[in-house]
Amino acid sequence: MERYVLALDQGTTSSRAIFFDRSGGIHGTAQLEFKQYYPHDGWVEHDPMEILMSQKLAITAAMESGGIAAAQIAAIGITNQRETTVVWEKATGKPVYNAIVWQCRRTSEICEKLIADGLSDHVAEHTGLLIDAYFSATKIKWILDNVEGARERAERGELLFGTIDTWLIWWLTGGKVHATDYSNASRTMLFDIDRLCWDEKIMKALGIPACMLPEARPSSGDFGVVAPGISGLEALAGIPISGVAGDQQAALFGQACFSKGQAKNTYGTGCFLMMNTGESSMRSRNGLVSTIAWGLDGKVEYALEGSVFNAGSVIKWLRDGLGLIKSAPEVNILAESVPDAGGVLLVPAFTGLGAPYWDMYARGTMVGITRGTTAAHIARAVLDSIAYQVTDLISAMEDDVGFRLSELRVDGGASVSNKLMQIQADMLGVAINRPEVVETTALGAAYLAGLAVGFWSGLDDIENNRKVERVFRPEIDAHERGRRYAEWQRAVERSRSWAN
Ligand code: ADP
Question: What angle, 0 to 180 degrees and rounded to 10, lies between the N-to-C axes of helices 136-146 and 108-116?
Fold first, then answer.
């Protein structure tokens, strides 16, 4: 009887369940979308019960699609949208408020106050993060401040906080385990990433009682077992939950970036770049955040992280905003119809610029347009802009770590574009390595879970599983690369400090 590891990939718009075999191959998968709530401008919520239901249904649907029985499941791994915050009643499991999603900006003012109170240095030094509404800490404070009686109840030990991993673990174990892993904890802006404990000073500044926080554990190890009598999942009772990581960290693991200096980039709506920085945490001089990659085998490894706000979304803008293409893949055909962008540069600073510029007043700009500019040049400029922004982040990371990247491993929806990957190799001057299995996030969670129960014997075993689908090598020389990058930087200058 073949055995499998079940990965739960609880994302921002859908809950997925995927079964992996020993070679990392996929058997049986299912995906269920759930509702997004936008109660006010800039606010984003999910219903935690809908998340739980959709995740449970995805499990049973994936079992059906793969013809897999509960007895064949060796372990469960969880990966999740990070930072999204749930507070619930310990006695009943009932949320006291909707989940506040990572994208939600409602706590910007709380963040401004923390900055004005002089907490920035403490937060950067201890959590590795910048003070921002994105992270969980101020979202917890918002719930405690705005739900009647919540702070008093939390102080009496009646309420629990968790990110989505914790929420799922708590429910799957029948309320027995209230835990998170180090990678998820490191995204709360409450966790000391060096001492591996919750930070008293930040908790105090936000009025968050320690008793509501989960226990932070290594990412591969014991998170309890599925409890008997979980409705819809009765057959799964006793299966261990043994791997947990936030989505980006799980992808880094799924890409087998186990050594210091290895990096992956996910090309989705935005881009998420992460580099393994080894066993000591570092602080960026270039506006990147420092985070825990995972805890495994008695060790904790760290990563530098940077993101591009607009990547795949620029292709969608070409389709929906400009109407120059009918579907995303068409961008490649159009872009390949010209040798280059004909001198056109697009800076897609639609929502400002992130690392290393951090200019929220920057706005989108297109420069170098002449009478000869065509839709094809603009399509090519779109692909260029994605690659240039990733190059900006890699340069910042290289400057922080003091060495050059040797290769970039890629995944995400837009990584299927051969043209984009070739442009990226040219701009970075390093090989781009695209794996056969691009479900790296779910795979990473499965690996963390499977390692803990001996399904895989060690990191070598996993590295051997990683099959390269294609490698893209640079086809331009350093001089040409430098010329193009200088041009990009000139274009970025034109986009800056535009809105006010
Ligand atoms: P997310 O998880 O952020 O929703 P995905 O990883 O699913 O994103 O990637 C979706 C993005 O990939 C879209 O923004 C789309 O523009 C882009 N995309 C999809 N197919 C292609 C393609 N063939 N070539 C280039 N980009 C593509």
Answer: 110
Report the alpha-carbon distance of residue 491 to residue 489 in Å, rounded. 5
Residue 217: predicted pLDDT: 98
CA 311 / ligand 1 centre spacing (Å): 9
- 278 close to 291: Cβ distance less than 8 angstroms: no
> Per-residue pLDDT tens for 444-499?
999 999 999 999 999 999 999 999 999 999 999 999 999 999 999 999 999 999 98
Ligand 1: distance of its center to the CA of 115 in Å?
36
- CA of 401 relative to ligand 1 center, distance in Å: 30
pLDDT level of residue 10 (50, 70, 90 thresholds): very high
Q: What is the mean pLDDT of residues 323-345?
A: 96
Q: What is the pTM of this model?
A: 0.92
Distance 438 CA to ligand 1 centre (A): 12
To test the pocket of ligand 1, the residue of 416, 423, 438 to mutate (highest count of ligand atoms within 8 Å of its CB) is 416
Q: Cα separation of 129 and 124, whole Å?
A: 5
How far, in Å, from the CA of 341 to the mean position of ligand 1? Answer: 21
**pLDDT tens by residue, 352-391:** 888 888 887 899 999 999 999 999 999 999 999 999 999 9
On the 0-12 / 13-18 / 19+ scale of CB atoms within 10 A, 43 is: middle
- Atom in ligand 1 nearest the alpha carbon of residue 332: 24
Pocket around ligand 1 at a 6 A CB cut-off: 268-269, 312-313, 315-316, 328-329, 331-332, 412-414, 416-417
Closest residue to atom 23 of ligand 1, CA basis: 329
CA of 75 to the centre of ligand 1 (A): 30
pLDDT of residue 358: 83
**Would the pLDDT of 430 be above 80?**
yes
State yes or no: cis peptide before 356, omega within 30 of 0: yes
